[in-house]
C-alpha cells in the first residue's frame, strides 16, 4: 500500500476571523480519512509564526484557552479574555518563549519537511488574500483551493465589485471610503454623496472582513447613525464622558470587554491619539482617568483597522449562499444554493455558527428555473474570477427574479454547520469524503498551474493508489447507530453532538456510523435512519420537517446526476431517503448505539430501557442512574445525604406558585436570599438558567416556565433579557438554588470535570477523572454560546487553583477525588461531566460545591470534555472509542 499523504492543516492566523479558522482547522483535522491521510496541525499565530502544535491543543474550545499560555497572562486582566497580541510588542525571543509550551516554532523553509500538501483553513489577511498561497507556491508545496490571483480578488470586496460590473454581473449602486479620507468633518459630504448615489436602506461593511464582522444595515437617512456605522466598519469607537459616567464599575468592565472582542468590538491593541493600548485593564484605567471632565471624549482606533469601507444599496430580496466546485475535468458545478431565512436582523457571527438560531433552506424555495439561474450566475462568476477547486458565493434574488452576487469567498468556513459541508451533503458526500475530494481536486489543479511540469504528479498517483486500495480492501466495521435530536429544549445541541460523533467515527477504519434521528414524545419515540444531507441540516426542527415532508427536489436530482462520477468515487452506498425504525429494527441494523441525546429522552433512562430490551449495547449510564441524574433536585439531595456539599435548594411547582406565591417568596427570603438561581429541574445546556435579582424577575421567570402556550410573554422576556430565538422550556416545576458565593474563600472558581469509566478487576466501574476545566463566564451564568459555540467561551484546562505547584497538585487531587466520589454515589457508568464550584481558604481548606451531573454530556466540537480527555492523551475519536468499548464490555461481561 502507498504511504499516507501528510496533510498540513494551517489554521489560526491574525485576522478577526481567527476563531472560525481555528474551529475549521479542528474540523478538518478530525475528519480527514485516517486510511489516506496523516493530519499535521500547523497553527499560525497573530505574530506571523508557524507553530507545529501539540495535538491536544487542537481540541481547546478557543485560541484564548491555550495561547497565550496561562503563565504569560498579565496580572490585572483576570476579567478579560486575551490574545497573544494583548501582551504587547514582543521580540523574537519573547515570542519563542510564548510558543514553547504549546509546540515548536517552524520556519517557512521547514514546512516542506512536515507536509506533502497544505490544507488552508485561514480566513482574512494572510489567508484568503493570496499571500499564503504565494509563499506555498515559492516553497513548492501544493495547497487547497484557489491560486494567488483569485484569492487576492476574493479578499477585496471593492475590487470584486468593479470586476463583476465589468464582466456584466448585476450590482447595486456602491461607493468606497478610504481611511485616509475619513473624519468627522468629512462625514457630512460622504453622507450627501451616499444619499444621492445610493440612497437608503444602505449596507455598510469593511472591505476586507468576513463572518459579518464590521457590518451594519442602515434603514433611515440619519447622518449621526451613518457616521457611527462607517466608524464601526473602520473599527473606530468614540466614547463620551457623559456615556461613561452613567456606568457602574461592572458595566464599565463589560463595555471594555465588548470593545476588545475582535468579533463584535474593534479589538485590541488600539490607539488613542499617539498612545497604544494592548491590555484591556490598562485601557479601563485610562478611560476612568481621561473621561472626568463633562464633555470630554476619547476616540479609539484598532491597530488592526480597516483601510477601506464599502457602501452599497440594500437589496430587498431572498438571500442565498452557494458552494461552487470543480469536477475532475475542471468544469464548475454549483451545488444547491441555500436560502438564509431571517428578519431584518443581521445574519451575524452568533446566528451563523450556533445551531438552532438560523434557518437555512436547501435548495432555496424558488421555481426550478430561478434556482438554476442562481446556479448558472454563480458558475459564471466562478469562471470570470478564475477561481479554482471551490468557492462560496453569496447573493440575493429580488422579487423580479434579478440575481445580485456579492462576497465571493475562495475559502469557506469549515465548521460542521457551514455551507461547505451542508451543500456537499446534498450530493451524498459526508465531510470526510468531501475533504478527500477537495484535496484530490486541489492537487490536480496545482499540477495544471505548477511551473515545473510533473512536480506533484507522484503525490496524485499516491493518492489515487490509496483510494483504490481503500475501495477494494475495506474491512468489515462495527455499525454504530448515532442517536440524536429529541424533543427537549436541548435538541439543537443534540444535533451538534450527534453530528460530531458521527464525523469522528466516519473517518475511522473501525466503525461505520449510522445517523438516527429521534423525535416524538415521552409516550412514543419515533426514530428514522437519515441520509447525510438531513444529518447536516441546520437544526433539529429543520431535520424533523424534512423527514415529515421528504422529497428530492428536481434541481437537486439534476445536480446529483451531474456529480455522480464524484460521489461514486468518494462515497459508498447511500440511502435514498429517511427510513423509519423501531427499537427491534434498530437492533437488526446496528451492533451498538451512541446516544447523543440531551435531557429527556436520553438522560432520563427511557431510551436505555428500550435499548436493553432489544439487547443493544449503548454508551453512558444505565437507566437507574440516568433516572437520578436527570433530576437536579434528586441528585443534590442524594449527594447531600452522603456528606457532599450542594447549594441550598427547593422546588416550586405550578400549583404551589398559583396558590401560595407569597409563601414561596417568604421562603426564598428566609432560606435562600436574593439573588439566587432559578432553573428547570430536568434540563441542561444552560437552558433557562437565570440569576434572579428581584421579585419582579422571579415573577417573570415563573410566568414563562409555567406558561401554557409556546409563545413567550414579551414583557417577561424583556425583564429576563431573553435573547431572540432563545429556548425557554415549559415545565410544571422548577428549581430554586442558593447563589453559590466565595464566603470568605481566598480563591473561588467554577469548574466542570469529565471522567471515563474503566472496568476494574472485580467487574465494577473505576473512574479516570480528568483534570477539570475552569469555566469563565462573561455574564451572570454560563451561556449556551460559551458552552458550545466554537471560539465564544473560554475554559482554562486544567483549572487554576493556585500559583504554587504543590498546592495546585494537592487541590486538584482533592477535587478529582470528590468528583469521583459523587459519580460513585450516583452509579454513573461510561462517562459523565460534573459541574461544581471550588472554594480554597487560607490554611489549606478546600470545598467542592456540586451543581449538576450530566450522564450524557455535550459532545460538540467545542465542548471542554475533549480538552480534558486530551490532557489524558485521548484524541476525541479515541475518547469516543473508549466509551464504545466500555459499552460492549459491559454487555459481554455485565460490568
Kindly describe this structure.
- The radius of gyration is 27 Å and the shape is globular.
- Helix 10 crosses helix 11 and helix 15 runs antiparallel to helix 16.
- It is of the alpha+beta class and 895 residues long.
- Strand 1, helix 1 and strand 2 form a beta-alpha-beta unit.
- The protein folds into five domains: 107 residues, Rossmann fold (3-Layer(aba) Sandwich); 151 residues, ATP-grasp fold, A domain (Dna Ligase, domain 1, 2-Layer Sandwich); 141 residues, Rossmann fold (3-Layer(aba) Sandwich), CATH 3.40.50.20; 155 residues, 2-Layer Sandwich (D-amino Acid Aminotransferase, Chain A, domain 1), CATH 3.30.470; 91 residues, ATP-grasp fold, A domain (Dna Ligase, domain 1).
- Helices cover 38% and strands 22% of the residues.
Number of helices: 32
Count of distinct strands: 35
Overall morphology: globular
CATH topology of the largest domain: D-amino Acid Aminotransferase, Chain A, domain 1
Q: At the fourth CATH level, what is the homologous superfamily of the largest domain?
A: ATP-grasp fold, B domain
- Termini gap: 40 Å
The structural domain count equals 5
Computed CA radius of gyration, to the nearest angstrom = 27 Å
CATH class of the largest domain: Alpha Beta
Largest sheet: 7 strands, mixed
**Which CATH architecture of the largest domain would you pick?**
2-Layer Sandwich
> Mean of residue pLDDT?
90
SS class: alpha+beta
User: What percentage of amino acids are in beta strands?
Assistant: 15-25%
The poorly predicted ranges are 343-356, 781-793
- Helical fraction equals 25-40%
Amino acid at each position: 500500500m502507498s504511504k499516507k499523504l501528510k496533510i498540513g492543516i494551517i489554521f489560526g492566523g491574525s485576522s478577526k476571523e481567527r476563531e472560525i479558522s481555528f474551529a475549521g482547522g479542528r474540523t478538518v483535522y478530525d475528519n480527514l480519512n485516517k486510511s489516506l491521510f496523516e493530519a499535521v496541525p500547523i497553527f499560525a499565530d497573530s505574530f506571523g509564526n508557524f507553530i507545529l502544535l501539540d495535538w491536544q491543543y487542537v481540541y481547546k474550545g478557543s485560541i484564548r484557552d491555550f495561547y497565550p499560555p496561562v503563565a504569560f497572562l498579565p496580572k490585572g486582566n483576570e476579567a478579560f479574555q486575551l490574545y497573544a497580541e494583548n501582551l504587547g510588542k514582543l521580540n523574537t525571543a519573547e515570542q519563542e518563549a510564548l510558543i514553547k509550551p504549546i509546540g515548536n516554532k517552524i520556519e517557512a523553509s521547514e514546512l516542506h519537511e512536515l507536509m506533502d500538501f497544505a490544507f488552508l483553513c485561514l480566513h482574512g489577511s494572510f489567508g484568503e488574500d493570496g499571500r499564503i498561497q504565494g509563499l506555498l507556491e515559492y516553497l513548492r508545496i501544493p495547497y487547497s483551493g484557489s491560486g494567488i490571483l483569485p484569492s487576492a480578488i476574493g479578499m477585496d470586496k471593492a475590487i470584486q465589485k468593479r470586476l463583476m460590473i465589468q464582466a456584466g454581473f448585476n450590482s447595486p449602486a456602491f461607493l468606497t471610503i478610504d481611511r485616509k479620507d475619513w473624519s468627522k468633518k468629512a462625514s457630512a459630504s460622504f453622507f450627501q454623496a451616499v444619499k444621492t448615489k445610493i440612497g437608503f436602506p444602505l449596507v455598510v461593511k469593511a472591505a476586507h472582513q468576513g463572518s459579518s464582522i464590521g457590518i451594519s444595515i442602515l434603514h433611515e437617512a440619519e447622518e449621526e447613525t451613518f457616521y457611527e456605522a462607517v466608524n464601526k466598519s473602520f473599527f473606530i469607537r468614540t466614547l463620551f464622558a457623559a456615556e461613561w459616567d452613567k456606568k457602574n464599575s461592572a458595566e464599565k468592565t463589560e463595555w471594555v470587554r465588548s470593545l476588545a472582542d475582535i468579533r463584535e468590538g474593534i479589538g485590541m491593541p488600539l490607539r488613542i491619539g499617539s498612545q497604544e493600548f494592548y491590555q484591556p485593564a490598562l485601557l479601563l484605567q485610562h478611560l476612568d482617568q481621561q473621561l472626568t471632565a463633562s464633555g470630554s471624549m476619547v476616540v479609539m482606533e484598532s491597530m488592526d483597522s480597516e483601510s477601506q469601507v464599502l457602501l452599497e444599496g440594500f437589496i430587498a430580496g431572498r438571500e442565498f449562499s452557494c458552494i461552487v466546485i470543480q469536477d475532475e475535468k475542471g468544469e464548475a458545478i454549483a451545488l444547491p444554493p441555500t436560502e438564509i431565512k431571517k428578519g431584518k436582523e443581521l445574519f451575524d457571527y452568533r446566528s451563523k455558527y450556533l445551531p438552532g438560531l438560523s434557518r437555512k433552506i436547501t435548495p432555496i424555495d424558488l421555481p426550478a428555473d430561478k434556482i438554476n439561474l442562481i446556479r448558472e450566475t454563480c458558475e459564471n462568476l466562478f469562471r470570470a474570477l478564475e477561481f479554482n477547486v471551490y468557492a462560496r458565493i453569496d447573493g440575493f434574488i429580488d422579487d423580479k427574479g434579478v440575481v445580485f452576487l456579492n462576497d465571493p469567498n475562495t475559502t469557506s468556513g469549515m465548521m460542521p454547520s457551514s455551507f461547505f459541508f451542508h451543500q456537499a451533503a446534498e450530493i451524498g458526500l459526508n465531510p470526510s469524503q468531501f475533504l478527500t475530494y477537495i484535496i484530490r481536486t486541489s492537487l490536480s489543479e496545482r499540477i495544471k498551474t505548477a511551473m515545473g511540469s510533473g512536480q506533484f504528479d507522484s503525490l496524485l498517483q499516491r493518492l489515487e493508489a490509496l483510494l483504490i486500495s481503500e475501495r477494494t480492501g475495506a474491512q468489515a466495521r462495527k455499525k454504530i447507530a448515532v442517536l440524536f435530536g429529541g424533543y427537549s429544549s436541548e435538541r439543537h445541541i443534540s444535533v451538534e453532538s450527534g453530528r460530531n460523533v458521527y464525523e469522528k467515527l466516519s473517518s475511522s477504519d473501525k466503525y461505520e456510523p449510522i445517523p438516527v434521528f429521534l423525535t416524538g414524545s415521552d409516550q412514543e419515540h419515533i426514530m428514522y435512519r437519515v441520509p447525510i444531507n438531513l444529518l447536516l441540516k441546520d437544526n433539529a426542527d429543520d431535520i424533523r420537517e424534512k423527514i415529515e415532508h421528504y422529497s428530492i427536489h428536481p434541481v437537486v436530482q439534476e445536480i446529483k446526476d451531474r456529480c455522480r462520477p464524484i460521489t461514486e468515487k468518494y462515497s459508498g452506498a447511500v440511502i435514498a431517503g429517511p427510513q423509519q425504525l423501531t427499537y427491534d429494527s434498530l437492533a437488526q441494523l446496528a451492533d451498538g448505539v451512541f446516544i447523543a441525546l440531551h435531557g429527556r429522552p436520553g438522560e432520563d433512562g427511557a431510551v436505555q430501557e428500550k435499548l436493553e430490551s432489544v439487547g443493544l449495547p449503548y454508551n453512558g449510564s444505565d437507566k437507574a442512574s440516568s433516572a437520578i441524574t436527570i433530576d437536579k433536585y434528586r441528585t443534590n439531595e442524594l449527594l447531600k445525604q452522603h456528606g457532599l456539599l450542594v447549594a441550598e435548594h427547593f422546588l416550586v411547582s405550578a400549583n404551589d406558585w398559583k396558590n401560595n406565591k407569597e409563601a414561596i417568596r417568604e421562603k426564598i427570603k428566609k432560606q435562600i436570599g436574593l439573588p439566587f438561581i432559578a432553573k428547570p429541574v430536568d434540563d441542561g445546556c444552560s437552558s433557562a438558567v437565570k440569576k434572579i435579582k428581584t421579585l419582579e424577575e422571579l415573577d417573570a421567570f415563573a410566568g414563562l416556565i409555567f406558561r401554557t402556550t409556546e409563545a413567550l410573554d414579551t414583557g417577561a422576556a424583556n425583564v429576563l433579557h431573553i435573547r431572540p430565538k432563545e429556548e425557554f422550556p415549559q415545565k410544571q416545576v422548577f428549581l430554586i438554588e442558593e447563589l453559590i458565593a466565595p464566603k470568605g474563600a481566598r480563591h473561588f472558581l467554577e469548574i466542570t470535570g469529565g471522567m471515563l469509566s474503566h472496568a476494574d478487576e472485580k467487574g465494577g466501574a473505576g473512574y479516570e477523572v480528568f483534570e477539570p476545566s475552569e469555566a469563565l463566564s462573561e455574564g451572570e451564568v454560563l451561556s449556551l454560546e460559551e458552552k458550545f459555540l466554537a471560539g465564544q467561551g473560554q475554559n482554562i484546562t486544567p483549572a487554576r487553583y493556585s500559583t504554587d505547584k504543590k498546592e495546585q497538585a494537592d487541590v486538584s487531587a482533592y477535587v478529582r477525588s470528590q468528583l469521583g466520589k459523587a459519580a460513585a454515589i450516583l452509579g454513573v457508568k461510561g462517562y459523565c461531566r460534573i459541574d461544581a464550584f471550588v472554594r480554597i481558604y487560607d490554611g489549606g481548606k478546600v470545598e467542592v460545591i456540586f451543581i449538576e451531573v450530566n450522564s450524557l454530556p455535550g459532545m460538540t466540537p467545542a465542548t471542554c470534555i475533549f480538552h480534558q480527555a486530551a490532557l489524558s492523551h485521548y484524541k476525541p475519536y479515541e475518547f469516543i472509542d473508549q466509551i464504545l468499548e466500555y459499552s460492549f464490555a459491559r454487555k459481554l461481561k455485565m460490568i
